[in-house]
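Sanity check

After download, print the first record. It should look like this:
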Amino acid sequence: MNLSRRLLFASAIWEVARPRTALNPGHLLIRLTNPAVTFDLRSAADWLWCHNAARQGLAEVLGAKRCTVVFAHQWHPIGAAIGEPEVESSTPTFHLFGRWDREPVSPGEQLRLPAQRRVPAGAKELQEYDGGLRTVLRRLALGRPSEAGRQFAAILPGGIAANGHLAEPVPQPSGNLPKILSSAPRVKAGAHHSVLAPASGEPGLTPGHLLALAASLQGMTERRGVSGLSCVVPEPRGGPLEVHAMGRSAGESVNPMQEFLDLPEVSQALL
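Expected structure tokens:
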């Protein structure tokens, strides 16, 4: 049974919400509030703050120590949607899956099933957790630097500043964006599976990295036979952050996301 999307926190540009079909209690959305907003440094910085805040909320309420991000670019899951969350809206949406010990069901278990056979988390269970998530998000928002002071905030690994508050991502000055490397994985999920990673090799991201990644993803949609992308960003776990991007098309003979869930290199992110 699908629930209505439940707002947990609204930031300046993005919102953190519970999806209509939450695959488990650790499943949240980061969704653009106004689709007319341009994805620029300010929007990227606001997304990073919402992402870090949502992760902190999942850590405090559920004990989630790892998180995986799943999103689509110029692509909407069709049919059974194996390997992909159901479409929430045409507005840019990122699915965040927190992972913790003794979770009742993993997101990968649910995503292996056709969309019509997935069993959403119970409404009462979600309401209990959502109250705690709202409390954490409100607390973090109260400690967020003002617009005028954000350019001086320092961000540390994990998004937590030295004073215990959630650090504000700092937009970089205009100029060249950070370099993004694109490579083919050792084992590919479909013919159009690429891995994108910042050339710096660092696990963390800046707003500039997000803009550079967005430009790289857009370039991938211009390949022959690719009309959109399904993307998964596993927890770095000590190594560099990697974005797995699978090229999609309406006429594809094989669903690359179905193959992706079976890859040993990445399966632990969702299973």
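If your output differs, re-run the checksum step. Summary of this record's structure: The mean pLDDT is 85.
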